[in-house]
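Re: the request from the purification team.
They wanted to know what the chain is likely to look like in 3D before they choose a buffer screen. I agreed to run a prediction and write the result into the notebook, where they can find it.
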Amino acid sequence: MIYVIYRILYGTDFLERSMRSVYDETDKIFVGYSTEPWSKPKNFPKITDIEKSPVEVIWENFDKTDEKIKIFSHHVDTPKGQFNYLYDCAVDFLGKPDMVIFMEPDMVWAPGVFKNFIEEVQRRSSEYLFAPQIEL
């Protein structure tokens, strides 16, 4: 079982493309999102006032009944331990996976590359592997 876990505050411009780039090779996609930053700065605009929410993007571009995708609203006051928290939430909702890939909403894999990444992870004995990011 392969999970992709997203943590999202803002940056939904590429979310659909990102999810489509991993969709076929993933058993479950878990999207944890918040609508306000950890630090709660004064006069910070609501994320939904400046862009579409992750829920809007997903519902507009994927089947709402797709059981592969789980959307989860959450807020924490610090980034400390957030990946562990999201992993634990995903396991509570979906069960324990064999492999987890944490993604940001602007990470988009070229066709075939995510599949190659998964195969490389499965061939290695290490529990951890990361893919360098190319900024465009």
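For the purification team: The CA atoms of residues 13 and 106 lie 7 Å apart.
Please add any questions underneath this entry.
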